[in-house]
């Protein structure tokens, strides 16, 4: 069976970047300790509307203050927590989101270990009911902290696939395309998403570097006539 375009892009990006590094080295790690899972949950909230370098500064502040677990964070008052996570931006709002999320985790499941065993659909619905937890944050927690096979859609992914000729308008529509065209494997989902972030940061910018892009042979951005013929792309019904 011939590979569809989603699989081809994944292979091209793996060839370009190899294994994810930096933030993604931990996030894509299949077997995580309890503390590593907690750091992923923490990072999923702190990374909203900022870059990872700022999140690292906030996490390092927490570590220096010997706040190295979600329970420790919950015990801090909001004012002191806000001060520690200030480098991540929107720190007062994010401290409220974190306290609400951690309270939910321990009140309903007694911690991440038991929460991880629950059904992904159930968890997603409940996470999305929490203030400050949108689809990208909820799916990042499910995929990277709990190894649930659900594809994360972010601004980079939307930008890249719009330029590739995909004009799906909602998060759900684009997520469904990935999940319909890839093996249902969380290891592929987490690595693929990480690789798309790298592509978005380095090549597929608002002003894209098309000539240098590792997937320019699969991209229709510079050919409007082909974009109108999108349904002829391999693997797309």
Task: Please tell me about this protein's structure.
The model is unreliable at 225-237 (pLDDT under 50). The protein starts with a helix and ends in a 10-residue tail after the last helix. The protein has 14 helices and no strands. It is globular. Helix 3 (34-46) runs antiparallel to helix 10 (135-145) and helix 9 runs antiparallel to helix 10 (135-145). The protein is 60% helix and 0% strand. It folds into two domains: 5-19 and 152-232, Endonuclease Iii, domain 2; 31-145, Orthogonal Bundle (Endonuclease III, domain 1). By secondary structure, it is mostly helical.
Radius of gyration from CA coordinates: 19 Å
Strand content: under 5%
Helix content range: 55-70%
Secondary-structure-based class equals mainly alpha
Distance between the ends: 15 Å
The CATH class designation of the largest domain is Mainly Alpha
- CATH topology name of the largest domain, in short, is Endonuclease III, domain 1
What is the number of domains?
2
Number of strands: 0
- Rounded mean pLDDT is 90
Please name the fourth-level CATH homologous superfamily of the largest domain. Answer: Hypothetical protein, domain 2
């Amino acid at each position: 069976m011939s590979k569809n375009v989603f699989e081809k892009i994944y292979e091209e990006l793996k060839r370009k970047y190899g294994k994810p590094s930096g933030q993604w080295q931990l996030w894509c790690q299949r077997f995580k300790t309890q503390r590593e899972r907690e750091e992923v949950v923490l990072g999923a909230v702190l990374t909203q509307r900022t870059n990872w370098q700022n999140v690292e500064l906030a996490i390092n502040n927490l570590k220096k203050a010997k706040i190295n677990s979600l329970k420790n964070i919950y015990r801090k008052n909001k004012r002191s927590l806000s001060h520690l996570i200030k480098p991540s931006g929107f720190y007062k709002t994010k401290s409220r989101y974190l306290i609400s999320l951690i309270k939910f985790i321990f009140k309903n499941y007694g911690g991440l270990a038991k929460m991880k065993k629950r059904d992904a659909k159930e968890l997603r619905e409940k996470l999305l009911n929490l203030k400050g937890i949108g689809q990208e944050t909820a799916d990042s927690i499910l995929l990277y902290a709990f190894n649930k096979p659900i594809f994360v859609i972010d601004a980079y992914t939307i930008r890249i696939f719009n330029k590739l000729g995909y004009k799906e308008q909602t998060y759900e529509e684009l997520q469904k395309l990935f999940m319909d065209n890839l093996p249902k494997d969380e290891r592929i989902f987490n690595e693929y998403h990480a690789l798309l972030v790298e592509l978005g940061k380095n090549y597929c910018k608002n002003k894209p570097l098309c000539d240098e892009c590792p997937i320019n042979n699969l991209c229709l951005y510079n050919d409007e006539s082909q974009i109108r013929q999108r349904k002829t792309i391999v693997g797309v019904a």
